[in-house]
Design goal:
SH3 type barrels; 0% helix; globular
Length: 84
């Protein structure tokens, strides 16, 4: 998990994600919720200097959309490109 902090996570529109938790990010205000987000889908990607850093996510259970930085998200699944 140590190497995970070095690489910035990248997501695409339609990725199924979960909220991994807060990690330090300068100049970002955190919204602290009691329950936290469990399962969501990336609906848009930040533009300009926020591209690849900020993602708009729709959270299914909460029926809410938030802007979340990549370090707080985790991909729910991965596809093995080598299997047919």
């Amino acid at each position: 998990m140590m190497g995970d902090d070095i690489v910035t996570r990248q997501f695409v529109k339609g990725d199924l994600v979960s909220f991994e938790g807060y990690r330090y990010s300068p100049d970002y205000m955190y919204e602290d919720l009691d329950t936290g987000y469990r399962l969501g889908v990336v609906i848009s990607i930040g533009r300009g200097y926020m591209e690849g850093i900020m993602y708009k996510v729709y959270w299914f259970k909460e029926t809410r959309t938030t802007e979340t930085i990549a370090e707080h998200l985790k991909l729910v699944y991965t596809l093995d490109k080598f299997k047919g």
